[in-house]
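for the writeup, i need someone to sanity check this before i put it in the appendix. the sequnce is what the collaborator sent (i think, or maybe the updated version? ugh). structure was predicted straight from it, no edits. if anything looks off just tell me and ill rerun, i have time this weekend
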Amino acid sequence: MLDIPSYRITGRVTGPEGEKHVLIRTVPAGPDGSAEREWRLFPSGHTLTLRDVRPGNGDELTLAVKGVPAAALEPGRLLFPRVWPVTAGARVLMLAPDPRDGEGRLLEGPGGAFPRGGVPVRLELRDSLVALSCPRPIPVIPGAAYRIRTPDGTVRRWILLMEGHPRRRDIQRLSDMGAGGRTEPALKTVYSWNLALRGWAELPPPLAGAEYKGFHAQGRWRVREKDWNRWTRRLVKAVSRPGGAPLVGLDGEIGCPPGALDALIEGLESREELTRRRQWLIPAGDPRKFLSPMARQLLDEVRAAGERGLGPEALNDPARKQNFEALARMGLLRIGDGLILEEGVYRRLAEAVRSAAGERGDIPLSTAKEATGVSRRILLTLLGWMETDGLLERRGDVRYLA
């Protein structure tokens, strides 16, 4: 079964003056994971980067991490590599030999030992499978082994089959597929049961290349073909509107698990059907096909304004502002510092600035103003956009070609 790299936080470390990363004391709670760089903090789900692993006292190690608030790195929290699909759940289904109904104590699972004495759990026998309920979320990954003290005091090794408590008819399906036997199933079999009941699963690294008939493969995700096609149609529809669609809450709109959204986006990006821009998804192709009548009208206004652009008063109306922002996300115009400029005009002016550079690549402000013919206010905004785009770099009061 699965053996997952992990660390358990034991405390904070005061690093030397000038230390750029947060230092935490940990103990290895699983195999050596120092080769992994992206980690997830359990149970918050924060993603952080592991920069360095340093020897400590005894079994302890000092980790230098970046990308998560220091206050979130409390003692007792667990770190799992991001590539492992570890989730947080309080209800799971276990494969257990000779279980009995009643209370038990969960002693150990992915991430090492639970608190001293274990976590009290409620056990419910379901046709040789055990539905386990915890008072708080535990690390959950199908195929991982857990140690539990059963009501008769015996410590047993149980295998987690899936998150949640399946319905009675699903329990029967599991039994028909061979779950509930006295021997541990193969890891690929555990995930085939998850796929049969849920229609999707995120595979752990040992199954990275596994194929399942009738299921679409995208990265580590396997999704029933009809579900994958339905989610894809919904995502394309959601994105194909003026300004695209925000990533926040998009998985709920589509009806897919949160992690599957990234796999869907990856698949559509590879087919050049959409583009990710910061926290938004934008339809690929000619963006003018997706404009509303108001957005088309506003774009015509900006084009008519030419190099003068539109001023901040154009954004006073909330509906107009929303449409202008959508046009900016779709790459049709620029907004900033009280100026709205059509993208083609911006590119033309930017090229004029770059062409005016001296032998050393320097572009004094007076030279840029003469080359473009625009006002100082518009020029300063234009130069700021060029710096953001990596076309220029500023040294003191002079700008140079990047």
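The mean pLDDT is 90. Residues 90 and 112 are 17 Å apart (CA to CA).
thx in advance!!
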